[in-house]
Design a protein that fits this description.
6-stranded mixed β-sheet; 6-stranded parallel β-sheet; single chain; 17 strands; 677 residues; 53% helix; Rossmann fold; DNA replication origin binding; 4 domains
Length: 677
Amino acid sequence: MLIDQTSIIHCYEKIQKKAINGCVTVFIFVAFDADSLCSLKILTGLLKSDNIAYKVLPVTGFSQLEASIDECQTSESIQSMIFINCGGVLDLTQKWFVTEKTKIKAYIFDNHRPIHHHNIADKNNIVIIDDGTQNQQNCPEREDEILQMTAQHEEDEDISDNDNEDQDYSEEDDDDLQEYEDEDEGFDENGENKLKNKLDKKRKDLAYEDEEEEEFGKKDRREKNRRKRRSDKKLKEKKMEKKLKIEQHKQKMENYYEGFYYGKATSMLMYKICQQANKENNNYLWYTILGATDLLIHGKITQQQYDQMYEELVIEVEKVNIQKQEFSQDLNESIANEQRQKNIGFIEASNEYRFICLRNWNLYESIYYSNYFATKLEIWNENGDQKITRLIALLGIPLEEAKQQYKFMKAQFKEKLKDNIHSVATKYKLYNVLFNSFVRQIDEKTQVSSTDMVYCLTAILECPKQILQNIFEDPLKVGQSIQTDKTSDNSEEGSKNYNEKDIFDRIKNFWWAYETISSKEAVLILKGIDIAIQFQKAMVNEAKFVIDRDLITQCSDFRFLKLNNDTYSQNQYFQHPYSLQKLALFLMGIFKEKQKSNQPIKPIVLSIKNSITQTQTIIGVVGNHYSASTKNDFAFKFQSAAKALNLQYKQDDFETSIIEIKDQDFDVFLDEITLAK
């Protein structure tokens, strides 16, 4: 059942009413991305403020989600399930809390599209918060599915059985004639002529009757044929009408599930609860900003979609922070405006450069390694460095100033950057060097942008544990310890242990990121940003290496790159599928610039080998961003290829354009998706 976001407070009120003092009544399932983290922070803050006990269950994919749902069956106090960026594309109507007709409500806050139509159709247990991006008009209904299920059965039946109607003659004449012929057997030769005459007369009479009835029979047959044709025509029309209806419903189903895309940031929906409950504050607003920024910088939405969210957010920023300023003025009229803006937690709108992590890096490398400038200035070419050097010179900034930490760069050169960036960028056809964003005061000395904060959180979520454990203390104890130091000669057992360890490590990363998002210690955030910088350098250098060596293969409908995990960078940074996606999107940007035309860019398929599990992780991207008009259909292509070849595969991630297969099956799988149409 769909609930409009304007009525979202009613869902929260129902969760409140079902809460039981001293019992955990709310179970929260949450995915592993920045928007999910931010949404969780808002939700848990609200639940705490209303003294509602809850349990958080981070889930890495569908199998872990389903296992976690099944485990909840043992809870006697569970009343509400909340799904954050997971559960929407899974058919929850098959789960125990629906099939057993419980009173448990499942509330889905999921930016993945399309939402499973069974979840929308359910009127009792499942509630989906609609952000306005759900394609409800084309959503299949129960009628569509029932019609499609019965279609095949009806096609196998013989619906016309008209064989008997083909007989359009009467057997009465033959019976009469047979009667007289039978009499022939009862006469002797003396009565032969008399009987013969009688038979001849009868035959003549019958012949005359036949002539009359033949004419009548022709008319009767013609009438029967006309009736049969009319009946056949009606039957044919009825069959065609039903076939057309079946095709329409089938097409509706295919159109609805033709590809993968995203809705609005889920954190925006969570903030709607805050607004409708009159519980807005700067922390919740900051988390909402980060969620929207996450979708933008990771290519999940278009700039236009982000701008729509930005317009809503900037109004809230001005409202919440103006109230804070006015409160400060009431306390002390002498507080200067500059000092007020340095209040810890203060948020303001800002035009941010499309450089990456500039506040924590130097200008030269921030330009060189940013996705936007790296692709536009073609840093993979021999003269890429020269272009950046010339650009900095035209800005009026000495190279030595550009190569030192930005925070130590002289104020006069920071002003020159601000004053000259537009005119200089135009010469290089860089027309979008600034974009609308936000910054927040973390402490008295540290200001962080929303983009840098999202890069920080994403790096922590995706980074190998061995890098993070030197920065963070052990987070909340999650589950039971997993023995990971044991080795096994059995490859399947070793693979299982690796997968368990991988999930365990990712959950640790999740809680580290959760700790960072609300940290008042700037040092923790800055260390996370440093990790993000190292990943960005690795990604750009990997892409440059790939282009220099011409390692990308041209297939008929897509480009393909296979990473063999034979370098430190690949092993360290690209084992996580989301990191692999970022590399693919960056390569898409490069080919867009190399193509120099408005023709559609070929999708890219990337794979990397996991030497421990002897598997290949394969991802597919279709463009620099997803939208309702730019959908990623690799999920279905990958699944169809694996099924056609009868391969063992794992398509477990909520980002469904990711698949894992055995390394030995890789070549035939690639051939299959290459030939598929």
